[in-house]
Amino acid sequence: MNPLFKRQFSLVAKVVVLAGISAILLLLCQSAFAQHEYVISAFLFLATVAFNYVYLFSKAAHFKFFLPGILFLIAFVIAPNSLHGGDVGIQLQNWKYHF
C-alpha cells in the first residue's frame, strides 16, 4: 500500500469519527441548553471544542490521552463538589476508619 494513501485514509477516518462524536456531543449540548442546564451545556460545548482541537492539530498531540481523564475528573469529581454545596466535611461526616 502506498504510504500517501495510508496517510490520507487515516486522516479521513479520523475526521469522520471525530465528526460523529462531535455531532453527538453537540446534540447533547443542545438538549441540555433547552432544558435550562446551562452548566452542563457549556461543559459539553467546551469538551467538544477541546476534542476537536486536540485530535485535529498536531500541536496538541500530547494531550490525546490526557484530555479524557481531565474531562472525567472535572465532570465527576470537581463539578459535583463545587456545584452542590461543596462542603467536604459533610460528605466525610459518616466516614469511619475500617481496618
Keywords for this entry:
99 residues; mainly alpha; 4 helices; 74% helix; 0% strand; elongated
A few lines on this structure:
With 99 residues, the chain is mainly alpha-helical. It is 74% helix and 0% strand.
Can you put this structure into words, describing what you see?
This protein has 99 residues and is an all-alpha fold. 74% of the residues lie in helices and 0% in strands. It is built from four helices and no strands. It has helices at 3-34, 38-56, 66-83, 88-91. The protein is elongated.
Global Rg: 19 Å
Amount of helix: over 70%
The tally of strands reads 0
> What fraction of residues sit in β-strands?
under 5%
User: Main sheet?
Assistant: none
Q: What is the SS-derived class?
A: mainly alpha
What is the secondary structure topology, with strand pairs?
Elements: H1 3-34, H2 38-56, H3 66-83, H4 88-91
